[in-house]
Amino acid sequence: MSSPSLNETGQVPASVSLDGAGLHVLMTADAVGGVWQYALDLAESLRRHGVETTLAVLGPAPSVDQQATAEAAGAQLILTGLPLDWTAEAREEVEEAGRAIARIAAQVKPNIVHLNSPALAASARFDAPVVAVCHSCVATWWQAVKGGALPEAFVWRMDMVGQGYAAADRLLAPTQAFARTTAQVYDLADAPLVVRNGRRSPNLETRASTEPFVFTAGRLWDEGKNFAVIDRAAARLSVPVLAAGPLQGPNGARIEAHAVKALGRVSDTEIARHLSANPIFVSAARYEPFGLAVLEAAQAGCPLILSDIETFRELWEGAAVFVPTDDEEAIVAAVERLVQDAQARADLGRAARRRADAYTVDVMSAGVLAAYRSVLARSSHESSLEGAAA
């Protein structure tokens, strides 16, 4: 059965309710990082509002457990094999990927195209309104991690992302801090609309460990995650440090783990099992537009030790211990204080959990659905005006 879309005049058909019922969304995603969890959580939550989601997956194919999670979320997967904008070797590859997504959109006829990789809109034209999300980009990553002039390989990528931002009907960002940075770097007239990310809770029973340990998770190979400083700190800590996530990325980046016990890529369920023991969760990220791994730890009631960056301050001020980025001595001191003080660990964990209650999937999906309604209503109004003027 075909899904409803804007009719030939651009009006929303009568069968489509702007509260979400009857809407069909074509959403892009990749299975490499946090965008995967974002897309599946959003699709599952939107389904409760009557929204059908087709997920066009770029980059490496999802693992078996990832595909099972997508099926449980009710998302229809299209595995495209198309390159990600940050791993492609040439601009032409990204341009063709954008056109391929547009061809998929022409076939599935969605009401909304939701691009989690905005660069795809640089060369493509869609019949449906486009909502794009600034999850991250090479230009803001470089600014936070390296500094100085962009390398040539990043310049064309930044240009395509900027074109994608300009082409989108609505641009979203997960934090005020990242919205400001994005507006500054890309010289946007208006900052992206902020819709904070949420994460579904696995609802596992908390079983606080009698022996404290440290846990971290994410794309460990990514310099922006700053795993190296955690690994150095681990060599000086009195408790074990466990890290979940790949040590090698699809772009060839790689990092070694020396003092940390590296678990590799593990399933969401396995990460939740580790977090249910209430370890001390540490993130030393230099660059983090939001940080879903931190949210997962907070939902589990883990005490948080975070690098002192704008996004973490915005989200977790008063509910975490902050340490200077790259300061392994500060990380060691903060961890050891919590190791010696069970009450402080418990208090900090409760504070994190309370704050996490503000960042739910329901709140996120409500914000995204409001953005969908806004662009559909505007598209309908503009089409009405064009029809009247004809």
TrEMBL record:
Signal peptide positions on this chain: none
Alphabetized InterPro entries for the sequence: Glyco_trans_1, Glyco_trans_4-like_N, Glycosyltransferase_grp1
MF terms (GO), sorted A to Z: hexosyltransferase activity
Pfam families per the UniProt record, alphabetical: Glyco_transf_4, Glycos_transf_1
Top-level taxon of origin: Bacteria
Domain Glycosyl transferase family: 209-355
Domain Glycosyltransferase subfamily 4-like N-terminal residue range list: 32-195
PANTHER family (UniProt xref): SULFOQUINOVOSYL TRANSFERASE SQD2
Entry protein name: Glycosyltransferase family 4 protein
Native source organism of the sequence: Microvirga aerilata
